[in-house]
UniProtKB/TrEMBL annotation:
<feature type="domain" description="JmjC">
    <location>
        <begin position="1"/>
        <end position="136"/>
    </location>
</feature>
<dbReference type="InterPro" id="IPR045109">
    <property type="entry name" value="LSDs-like"/>
</dbReference>
<protein>
    <submittedName>
        <fullName>JmjC domain-containing histone demethylation protein 2C</fullName>
    </submittedName>
</protein>
<keyword id="KW-0479">Metal-binding</keyword>
<dbReference type="InterPro" id="IPR003347">
    <property type="entry name" value="JmjC_dom"/>
</dbReference>
<dbReference type="Pfam" id="PF02373">
    <property type="entry name" value="JmjC"/>
</dbReference>
<keyword id="KW-0539">Nucleus</keyword>
Amino acid sequence: VLKRLEEEDLDEGVRRRLKDSSETPGALWHIYLNRDMDKVQEFLHKLCKEQGLDVCLDQDPIREQGWYLSRKQRQRLLDEHGVQAWTVIQFLGDSVLIPAGAMHQVQNLHSCVQVINDFVSPEHVARSFHLTQELRANKEEVNYEDKLQVKNILYHCMKEVVSSLRRNSSDKDLKQNS
């Protein structure tokens, strides 16, 4: 495992943790920014063509999870498209948070259990809504429409905004009357 990780572009803090015998690396993650998804998809389509694989334009190689980009392929993605993956080593006991809709790949280095919990913050509700619409269009995604509960989040955000505006308005009225 350590020999495999020596090939990766890691910061000094992670390299120190790897040398610590009490730390066990559990998984290797590569996470891409949402804004780069079109470039990554274009690159994956190009790789398919180069390897003689049939590619339909409506196929989504990102969500089909049929690819694990090697270090050489990630470097090529950076050179040709300016897309860089963020490399994260997840040690046993660590958590990794993935932004909504961000492409990511993971290589388990030791046996592990994966626990997934979707979290959608109000700050990223627009991206989450867009992701929900994309997945709804895909007939193979069963019952995905309400998984992220974007409409529920929007409702509670608006309820909080209205409540805050009312409190603010009441505070101004009290100050003016005194």
